[in-house]
Specification:
By secondary structure, this protein is α/β, with parallel strands linked by helices. Helix 4 runs antiparallel to helix 5 and helix 6 runs antiparallel to helix 14. 34% of the residues are buried. The chain starts with a helix and ends in a 7-residue tail after the last helix. It contains 15 helices and ten strands. A hairpin with a 2-residue loop joins strand 5 and strand 6.
């Protein structure tokens, strides 16, 4: 096997062992550390060997060349190790999705949510719910079998219905507590929009704390949409710098304006940037629109008399930030005046937007929809039982099947290819 060829022997299981790795011609490759995990007591449930080598390109090239020369040896495909762990019962699908989220986590809050999934919190609850549904179904089917025994069916169906109602309450509570937890995976989208040459790109650079957009005194410099990913107090935020919105005969700029309007209309929050010569003129979409007055350093009278103005209800009311359809900020994107206050408001908006989703169990639309299907089936089982225990038993079977799909144990072959292809190579 590969381990014997490269290291000269198989080390003791699960014990880091120093070894001189050699290629097929017995030429040294690297002084490395190897580990041996015989299945099924391994991460994937199969025999696994790990080579901890120095990271030089020549070392890696020689190691890969030696492995590639062996029969029945190939490079792993994206997500293959995790998929093998799933197929061998080491992970359920919710845990595999948690691992995928952990790999792609950009912020601390995303990492925390992914770790909860990887620990199997949702999977454990789903397994328990499925077991209870099967127990309730067994009681109802036993009642069907003893339908000619007088009071026996009633004595069996009553505890089954009680169990179903308890389950309904638990699952509905999990669904109700989610808020916008699914969005924590993708993040909040904030669009910077406004007329040309009001400082949108400068504000983008201030928020990103680096040069990500071209800044020019000429109107129409930004023709396409520029996006940057930010970590605001652990919340993932995508900030979009759009083309200046105005009437134009330039076909390229006109397309940029069309895209800017469309992207701003889809955003979760719009920062409408203006200066002293403009007024708010954006009413597209359902997202809140905050007015940001830029270039206060050029308006000396206002700057000297009032300093920075922050008329935003976030810091002054107990109402949700999401209810604030407008807010008013005064900044100087070039000098940085008012930027800290604007960022603080964005953090507060993100906090309210994601709500309690940070501690939720559901992180994907797939999970939520399957739980909603489970609830529908459970509710239907309680309403149709008076028309026949067989109908209720069938609905319970459908509910158990939905939870089986959640865990990845029923009819998920097509879904697996979609999920695991997003993993990094070899993971």
């Amino acid at each position: 096997m590969a381990l014997t060829l490269l290291a000269g022997k198989i080390p003791l299981p699960r014990m880091a062992t120093r070894a001189l790795l050699r290629d097929g011609h017995q030429q040294p490759i690297d002084d490395a550390v190897v580990l041996w995990f015989p299945g099924p007591a391994s991460a994937t449930g199969e025999d696994v060997a790990e080579f901890h080598v120095h990271g030089g390109r020549a070392i890696l090239a020689a190691l890969f060349a030696t492995l590639a020369a062996l029969d029945h040896m190939r490079a792993a495909e994206p997500g293959e190790f995790t998929r093998r762990a799933f197929e061998n019962g080491k992970l359920d699908l919710t845990e595999a999705e948690g691992l995928d989220d952990l790999i792609h986590a950009d912020t601390d809050r995303q990492r925390s949510q992914a770790l909860r999934q990887l620990k199997g919190l949702l999977g454990d609850r789903a397994r328990d719910w499925r077991a209870q549904i099967i127990e309730a179904s067994a009681l109802i089917e036993a009642g069907i079998d003893f339908s000619d025994e007088g009071d026996v069916p009633a004595e069996l169906i009553a505890p089954a219905l009680a169990k179903i109602k308890t389950l309904l309450g638990e699952i509905q509570q999990v669904l109700a507590e989610q808020g916008r937890s699914e969005r924590l995976r993708e993040g909040l989208v904030v669009a910077i929009a406004g007329p040309p040459n009001v400082g949108k790109s400068t504000l983008m650079n201030q928020l990103a704390r680096r040069e990500v957009a071209i800044v020019s005194p000429h109107a129409g410099t930004t023709r396409d949409i520029i996006e940057v990913q930010l970590d605001l107090d652990g919340y993932p935020v995508t900030v979009i710098d759009t083309a200046g919105i105005r009437e134009t005969d330039d076909p390229v700029e006109r397309e940029g304006v069309r895209r800017a309007r469309a992207r701003a209309a889809e955003a979760d929050l719009v920062l409408w940037l203006i200066d002293a010569t403009h007024e708010k003129d954006f009413d597209e979409g359902k997202a809140p629109v905050w007015m940001v007055r830029n270039k206060i350093d050029l308006d000396q009278v206002e700057s000297d008399a009032a300093g920075l103005r922050l008329d935003v209800a976030i810091h002054r009311r107990s109402a949700s930030v999401l209810e604030q359809t407008s807010a008013d900020f005064a900044i100087s994107a070039s000098r940085g005046d008012g930027i800290a206050e604007l960022i603080s408001a964005l953090v507060a908006f993100a906090q309210s937007y994601f709500g309690s989703g940070e501690g939720g169990l559901i992180s994907r639309e797939r999970q939520r929809k399957l739980l909603e299907q489970t609830v529908v089936s459970l509710q239907r089982s309680t309403s149709v039982i008076e028309h026949g225990e067989e109908l209720a038993a069938e609905d319970l079977r459908i509910a158990a099947r939905s939870l089986g799909q959640l865990l990845g144990r029923v009819d998920v072959e097509d879904l697996l290819d979609v999920i695991f292809r997003d993993f990094c190579i070899g993971k």
